Amino acid sequence: MIFDDYEKPSKLMMNLRAVFGRAYPRVIGVNREPSWLFFETFLPLLTVAAFVYFYKALDAPAQYIGYVIIGGAMTAYWMNVLWHMAAQMFWEKEIGNLELYMIAPISRMAILGGMALGGMFTCTVRAVSTILVGVLLFGVTLSLPNPLMFIGIFIFTMIALYGMGMMFASLYMLWGRQAVHMSSLMTEPIYLISGFWFPIKAFQNPEILGASKGLWLGTIASLIPITLGLDGMRQCLFPGTNDGFLPLWIELLALMALSVIFLILAKLSLDYMEKLGKQEGRLTMRWQ
Question: Is residue 234 situated within a structural domain?
Fold first, then answer.
């Protein structure tokens, strides 16, 4: 027989192949469509430039220009989590791929993990390009006296952020066509409370919310990993500015905890989604 010598790969190997298979098209897509790199770098710079000139008109401290550039670069990751992670299962159902994912003898987290790695690569290319162009255009000076802390904060921000995206992937699919509306609804409010364009410590200003209310709002916003990630990276790149929300070591520990929590919640929500689909038999229906 032709299959007599076939040896079934281990479950770990199948999941690793699934991760590679879902990450591959996202990485290769950057090379096949160089125009995407231009538009994904140039268009976000328009928003960054608007805030830069706004701060210059107000004679804001020089580091605020750097805050805007870092925030503009990190929007790539947030948009990727919302549209290419959270809503991904819903889109896969719409185009008919979800049935294949459900019958494949692999973990659904391996599929989403591959999408996360591939999306992280493309977003990193865009983010680095945005930072380089922004620094060159606006003359921002960056310093990195503690690179290990910066790397740790960035890595755990990505783990927690994409873990949250995996969790939302199952919830969005259960909500059906409302996934698109939820993604649109969550975009701008998160930009505000997560401090993409200014440090969240600014909420504690007496002319805005005051110390107590600003602290509570910042604490609630910290449940979104990119809030602490942005604040920590800014503290690393602009040391001594006293605009940090929490000490760096506390933010790193919080991001580690959020990474574990969101990965566990992602596993539980994906298992629940699959169980519900088996019970009701409508998980892969096109219309709800």
Answer: yes
Q: What is the 3-state secondary structure (H, E, C) of 167-229?
A: HHHHHHHHHCCHHHHHHHHHHHHHHHHCCCCCCHHHHHCCCCCCHHHHHHHHHHHCCCHHHHH
Contact (Cβ atoms closer than 8 angstroms) between residue 90 and residue 173: yes
Residue 69 counted as domain residue: yes
| Residue-range definition of the domain harbouring residue 41 | 14-27+34-280
196 domain-assigned: yes
Tens-digit pLDDT profile for residues 149-171: 999 999 999 999 888 888 887 77
The closest of 70, 91, 279 to 194, measured between CA atoms, is: 70
pTM exceeds 0.85 for this model: no
Residue 21 lies in a domain: yes
> Rounded to an integer, what distance in angstroms lies between the CA atom of residue 116 and that of residue 26?
9
Nearest to 80 by CA among 176, 187, 5, 229: 187
